[in-house]
Amino acid sequence: MATGISKTKWNGKLQVNAYKNSPFSYNPIWQNGNSGNRLYYGDNLSVMNNLLNDKSINGNIKLIYIDPPYATNSVFQTRKQQDAYTDLITGEEYVGFICERLILMKELLANDGSIYVHIDNKMVFHIKVLMDEIFGADNFRSMITRKKCKSKNFTKKTFGNISDYILFYTKSNNYVWNKQYEQWTNEKILKEYPFVEDDTGRRYKRVPIHAPGTRNGETGKIWRGMMPPEGKHWQFTPAKLDGLDRKGEIYWSKNGNPRRKVYLDESEGIALQDIWLDYLDIDNQNTQTTGYPTEKNLAMLKRIILASSNKGDMVMDCFAGSGTTLVAADELGRNWIGIDAGSEAIKVMLNRFQNGTQTLNKHMNNEKEPKKKILDLFSKQETAENMIIVGGVSHHPINNYTIFANDNYTGREFNLP
Fold first, then answer.
1. What CATH number does residue 133 fall under?
2. I need a surface site. Which of 10, 150, 174, 314 has the fewest CB within 10 A?
3. Which contacts qualify for 11-20: CB closer than 8 Å, 24 or more apart?
4. Mean pLDDT, all residues of the chain
5. Distance (Å, rounded) from C-alpha 63 to C-alpha 311?
6. pLDDT at residue 266 tops 60
C-alpha cells in the first residue's frame, strides 16, 4: 500500500503545467502501427476536451477506469525515490477537480458504457454524491469493497484500515455486462455440492423448489397433491416440475419433501460479489511491479474489463499511472486510451510496454529479468514470437500505439528508447 510524503516533509518542487485547462491540440510525437491505441502526455481535462471533437472517440468509449488522487495532501514517489505525482488538492478544490473531469467522462462514454472510480474511505462518499448527480442515482450499480493490504498492527485508536472502494456506474440502464465468476475450489465444492448420484457420479446440491411470495397463476396451484408453503409459490409451473421429476432432477426425502437437484457440472463458477479479497496492492503480494506508487493489480483490472467490455471495445484510463489498465486492455483484445500528466508515469509505462515488470527485489537492484527475446519498442512485428518471458510469466509487449503531446511538449520530458 503506497504511502505518500507529507507536503511539509517534501523537498521537491511543485511542477505546474502551464497548459492546464487550456484548449491545446494534441499531436502525435511517435507512432507505430495503425491501431486506435493512444497514450497522451498532458492534463486529462485538456485532453478530454480535445477528444470531444474526435468523432471516432466521443460517445464510443465503452469503459472508463480511473484511480485518481485521493486528496491526501502528499507527494508519491517511485521505489527509486523519483517524484511520481503530487496529490496536494484537498477540500472543495478537490471535489471540483474530480467533478469537472467526471462530466467530460460521461460525455465521452458510449450510451451502453460503464465507469469505475477507485477511491479510499476519506473521499468515497463525496465522490458518490457527485456521481449520483452526474450519472444519475439510478445508474449506480455497485460499491465494491477491495481488500488492499494484509492485516496490520494499526497504531491509531480505531480498526485497521485494509480496504478501499470502487464505485461502479453506467451511463444508462442498457449497458455491457458479462457476468464474472470465481472458480470453485475443492473445499467449496465439498461444502456446496455434498451429494453424488449413484448412477451417474454427478455431484449436486439440493435446493427448495419454492420461492417467497404468493401467486394466483400456475405456480400457485397444487402439484403432486400439495400446495406451496404458506406465503410462497413454486419456482416452476407444475408441468415444468413434472418434467424435472421425469428426468430424475427432483429429490424426494423420506417424508415426501421435494427438492431440486442442482449439478456442479452445470455451474460456471461462483458469481462474483461486491467484496474482493484477492486483489491486494502490489507491495502486499510477491508479484511483479513497475515500482510506481499506487500500482494496481493486473488481474483486478482484467476482471473489470472482462465484465464491462467486449473484444474490440475502447477502454480509457485518464489517470494512467503505471499503465496497468492499458496492459490489461491490450492483453484482452481491447483498444485503449491512456492519459497522464506526469513525465515519470510516461517513462514507467514506456518501460513496461517494452520490458514488462520485475519482482520487487530485482527492480530495486536494477537486475534484468531473463527474456525470451529482447524487443525494440518500435518493432513492427506482432507475432507470437514477440512474447517476452519475465520471471517465468509471459508478458505482452505493447508496440502498436501512438504517443500524443500538446504544443508545450519540449522533447525533454521523457526519453523514448
1. 3.40.50.150
2. 174
3. 12/75, 12/83, 14/86, 14/88, 15/86, 17/42, 17/43, 17/341, 17/408, 18/408, 19/43, 19/46, 19/406, 19/407, 19/408, 20/45, 20/46
4. 81
5. 12
6. yes
Cα-based angle 61, 108, 175 (whole degrees, multiple of 5): 55
Name the one residue in this structure whose C-alpha cell is 456446496. 192
- Statement to judge: residues 207 and 318 lie in one domain: no
Closest CA to 305 of 279, 287, 325: 325
Residue 327 confidence (pLDDT): 92
Is residue 336 within 8 Å of 76, Cβ to Cβ? Answer: no
What is the per-residue pLDDT for 276? 94
CA-closest candidate to residue 40, choices 52, 55, 29 = 29
Query: Domain end: 218, 239, 266, which one?
Result: 266
Give the HSE-up count for residue 236: Cα atoms under 13 Å, Cβ half-sphere: 14
Domain interval for residue 224: 189-266
Evaluate whether residue 198 is within a structural domain.
yes
pTM above 0.90, yes or no: no
Query: Do residue 172 and residue 289 come from a single domain?
Result: yes
| 8 A C-beta contact, residue 117 and residue 127 | yes
112-145 pLDDT tens trace? 999 999 998 888 998 999 999 999 999 999 999 9
Query: Is the predicted pLDDT of residue 392 greater than 90, yes or no?
Result: no
Decide if 413 is inside a domain: no
Sign of CA dihedral 288, 290, 294, 299: negative
Domain-terminating residue out of 236, 266, 296: 266
Q: Quick one: pLDDT at residue 160? A: 85
**Number of structural domains the chain divides into:** 2
48 burial (CB, 10 Å; 0-12 / 13-18 / 19+) is buried
Instruction: Characterize the bridge pairing of strands 38-41 and 402-406.
Output: parallel
pLDDT at 284: 52
DSSP state of 372: S
Q: Mark whether 201 and 342 lie in a shared domain.
A: no
In this prediction, residue 181 has a pLDDT band, given cuts at 50, 70 and 90, of: very high
What confidence tens digit (pLDDT) does each residue in 43-70 have?
A: 899 999 999 999 999 999 999 999 888 5
